[in-house]
Amino acid sequence: MSVLVYINSAHGIGKNAFETVTYGKKLGDVTVVTNGNVDDASLAKLGEYGASKVLVDKTLVDADDQQLTRLIANAADQVGANTIVFSHDHVAKNVAPRLSVRLKAGLVSGAIALPDADGTIKVNVFSGKAFGSVKVNSAKKIISLLPNSIQPENIGGSATVEAFAGNAGDAKVKVLSTKQPEGEIPLPEAELVVSAGRGLKGPENWGIVEDLAKALGAATACSRPVSDIGWRPHHEHVGQTGIAIRPNLYIAAGISGAIQHLAGVNGSKVIVVINTDPEAPFFKAADYGVVGDAFEVLPKLTEAIKKFKASN
Amino acid sequence: MKILVGISKSPDTTSKIAFTDGNSKFDENGVQYIVNPYDEWYALVRALELKETIGGTVTIITVGAAADEAVIRKALAIGADEAVRVDADPKDAYYTAAQIADYAKSNGFDLILTGKETIQYNGSQVGGMIAEALDMPFVSLATKLDVDGTTLKLEKEYLGGIQSVEVTLPAVVSCAKGMAEQRIPNMRGIMAARTKPLTVIPAVQVEDLTSFTGYTTPPAKSSVKLIDPNNMDELVALLHNEAKVI
């Protein structure tokens, strides 16, 4: 079966791309389509994860949703792909629904696993409080895979990189500027996350959260009240009305664990909860708990992590 | 400016999530429905703010059964001018988008807003699907939206950062946190909502691209392992040796 994987390479080729290609490879022969300023060596690396061919349209920079839809539809047509795979990021949320209508292809968004034996695909629903199984009834299908749902597998293959004329047409949405946080790990992709809530008492106290995140190489996150009162930016808000994440490790300090917050994090593999209140509901969802004051526990944990990193 | 806002009902955020009929259907027993927060707090409120500053009308549309009219009245109470209910069970995002696109096509709107996703399906699908069906540009996950003549100026979430974009109307935009502040309907709004027009229209025929075959809930966590707050070395050792996450 021919599988087309769309990779957003605007900020380089990273873990998400390797995950998506690994996923595609389990379904069939993978062709990657991408666009923008990206070097061939980075693209060839996708071969190690199972891509046999990479089609790149380097003329298409800052492409809008309609251009990417045409690019991907044309690539799917050229390679005869009936399955298209995205990483479920901001670009996929912009483009995959359009493509679904254009190709009359059922869209499975937020997939967290490979198809089951009956062909249904598991997705996150109810903001992480449950899983649903989606059956695609159309001949063509589109799967948008949640980051951190599959381990990238380097199988040591190689890919040819070919220039591809996407015939994408003109952009209607004009990009004026893009502000990318420098050096920060994007929260949805992060494997390790340190999060804090109202228990931190004020935005000026976030240094101890950032110190721990830095020592671990983790992204930072926060609870809804903290983002609502402007202590932290909206994009850090994790929970039912924020974003749902699935890191390997989620450390929560000073967050009580309301059901809406848990919804956003219970896909995490391991949860550590630090709270002064032993009755905080979050402890019921935690793997490890520390009953103590975040102002004392976080610096101690940071020191312990540094010590561990130095000796390993 | 003529604005259309897509509204979905969602179970209240504190609802217990359970399933019935052999885990094939959401258990609605005891569930209170609300307007999906992203549709209400951001899309609808921003539409009303635009109407207040530059004039125009705000129409809300939902795909659902007669029982959903309570949720529609809530959106009218917040300030929408009129409501349309497509009388059908919304089978999937494609089905819903096709209904809204069909209505929009014959009624001509300058701007179509949706929430970024519903809190029950988290699909982020309907807005982009409407845009493709109408051949309009689509800006997803917008956190700021201003109108300058026939130009929309927007900020949107983009790969951990923020992108500023502009686009000429008509367009479809999905709305995320930051775009507007939640409004609580007042008594006058609630009274006025009772007499605002609510038109029921039949659904158009659409094929089912996807269907949900069943649901599961995450397995319960085994009990928490408590660590002495003065022994963070132990926690680090457990995270390394037992949990194997660092």
TrEMBL record, chain A:
InterPro entries: DHS-like_NAD/FAD-binding_dom (IPR029035), ETF_a/b_N (IPR014730), ETF_a/FixB (IPR001308), ETF_asu_C (IPR014731), Rossmann-like_a/b/a_fold (IPR014729). Residues 3-185 form the Electron transfer flavoprotein alpha/beta-subunit N-terminal domain. Its cofactor is FAD. GO terms for biological process: fatty acid beta-oxidation using acyl-CoA dehydrogenase. The keyword Plastid does not apply. SUPFAM superfamilies: Adenine nucleotide alpha hydrolases-like, DHS-like NAD/FAD-binding domain. Binds 1 FAD per dimer. It holds the Pfam family ETF. FAD binds at residues 198, 223-224, 254-261, 275. Keywords: Electron transport, FAD, Flavoprotein, Transport. One of its GO terms (molecular function) is flavin adenine dinucleotide binding. Belongs to the ETF alpha-subunit/FixB family. This is Electron transfer flavoprotein subunit alpha/FixB family protein. It comes from Taishania pollutisoli. The lineage of its organism: Bacteria, Pseudomonadati, Bacteroidota, Flavobacteriia, Flavobacteriales.
TrEMBL record, chain B:
GO terms for molecular function: electron transfer activity. InterPro entries: ETF_a/b_N, ETF_b, ETF_beta_N, Rossmann-like_a/b/a_fold. GO terms for cellular component: cytosol. Keywords: Electron transport, Transport. Belongs to the ETF beta-subunit/FixA family. Residues 23-210 form the Electron transfer flavoprotein alpha/beta-subunit N-terminal domain. PANTHER family: ELECTRON TRANSFER FLAVOPROTEIN BETA-SUBUNIT, ELECTRON TRANSFER FLAVOPROTEIN SUBUNIT BETA. It holds the Pfam family ETF. This is Electron transfer flavoprotein subunit beta. Transmembrane segments: none annotated. It comes from Taishania pollutisoli.
